[in-house]
# Entry
Amino acid sequence: MHGTPLFIRHGINDAQPADASGKDGRPRFTDVFFGRAASQLLSEAGVEHLYFEDDGGHSIKAAGKSLEKLVDWMKNQRRDPCPRRIIAQTPCGWNGTRDTPTPHHHWITIHDIGEQTLPFDEIRRTGPGPRWKEPREAFEKQGFKLIQRRVKAARVEAINDGNNRLIINTRNVARMSVWLHPRMADLSKPIQIVLNGTESRHRVEPSLLAALNSFQKHPDWSSVFHAELQLDVRGDSEPTPVSQWRGPNRDGLISGFTAPREWPDKLSRQ
# Structure
């Protein structure tokens, strides 16, 4: 979520056991542990966010003080459709094992991914599962722990380094797009891409088609990008595919290639 500031509110009493008569309980489907874990993980990742915890419950009415803080916080926020640093990951969401692809984030789109897995944070329940109208004894036996598991996924970290230079590092990405806007770079000049440590230069042409495709990815008129640069990303041991004459961008440049330190005197046919 780099590039998107977050405000998180959670009530300590969001989940609570039933009273002596067995009423007014709320199961631990949304326990405060979730809010605390989210804030912890965001802090460890260096993601800008504000976490506010109050003694309220699940309803909006109980979050009055939190909402006041949210309004005050929003007054100083300014939207940036072209943040300098972003991280795009797919899939993501509340359950990484389900088909929840979210391949587009700000100015990066992940089209195709490989077969590798990446670590995902997950909250695992302990004790009996929560359910409505459960007795207090069952509520008090429930717990949570933060774990990691491997999920088939892909990740892109992209930084706009200025002066028409973008630094991109990928994990398990096969094909991706970089969307460009005049606020990000001078589109009349070549764009320098440092992709997983390999540098290449690309000419991009703003077009109406790119703008329409950008809007289709994210229907927001304030976030329409003028040009699209598609990149084929080499796997760990696979060469970058060349789909047309002079490469993916028809510029005669290859990304993901490391020249040998010494060249042979003569070539032999394999």
About this structure: The first strand starts at residue 6 and ends at 11. The first helix runs from residue 32 to 45.
